[in-house]
TrEMBL record:
Protein name as catalogued: Universal stress protein UspA
Stretch forming the signal peptide: none
Domain of life: Bacteria
SUPFAM superfamilies: Adenine nucleotide alpha hydrolases-like
InterPro entries: Rossmann-like_a/b/a_fold, UspA
Domain annotation UspA: ranges: 15-151
Native source species: Bradyrhizobium forestalis
Length: 164
């Protein structure tokens, strides 16, 4: 399933994949990935996943409106994240919007871009746990196709600067 990584081959450059979701800590992952891109001479790919709602035949018109609104919200979230990355590292990240199950879409994006060298996620510092994506990935880490870096959502910009 997963293609060979080419990120350090001639004509390629390593990229860091970041998930831009509705969590409070997405900014920490974007910050770390942007700082990493500066040091590694690489790029950043920002992914927003729209998980589809269940729909019945009589609600298809409403579903189309909801899909359009989700697409608009995804574009706005990626605009904010790209602005943040540009402010941190003067880079223009690639933007990807996918619709479907989170893990399936995440793996598909990695498979389709052989320059993705790692996935960066931020974990919630709250008592409710690290967040749904970090928890979901915990079960797949042993077979995941790229290294995963998990940044604490409690780290300040200065702390991340010293680590990246």
């Amino acid at each position: 399933m997963t293609s060979k990584r080419l990120c350090y081959e001639p004509g390629h450059k390593p990229k860091c994949l970041v998930i831009v979701d509705d969590s409070a800590e997405w900014d920490r992952a974007v910050y770390y990935a942007s700082r990493w891109a500066i040091r590694a001479g690489g790029g950043v790919v920002m992914l927003r996943i729209i998980e589809p709602e269940e729909q019945t035949q009589e609600w298809l018109g409403v579903a189309d409106i909801m899909r359009a609104e989700a697409q608009e919200a995804a574009e706005a979230a990626l605009d904010r994240a790209a602005g943040r990355a540009n402010g941190i590292a003067a880079i223009t990240p690639e933007r990807v919007i996918r619709e479907g199950a989170a893990m399936e879409q995440l793996l598909a994006v990695i498979d389709e871009d052989p320059d993705i060298a790692m996935l960066v996620l931020a974990a919630s510092p709250g008592a409710e746990g690290p967040g749904p994506l970090v928890s979901l990935l915990a079960h797949a880490l042993g077979t995941f196709p790229v290294p995963v870096t998990i940044i604490s959502g409690a780290l300040s910009d200065q702390s991340v600067d010293s680590l990246s």
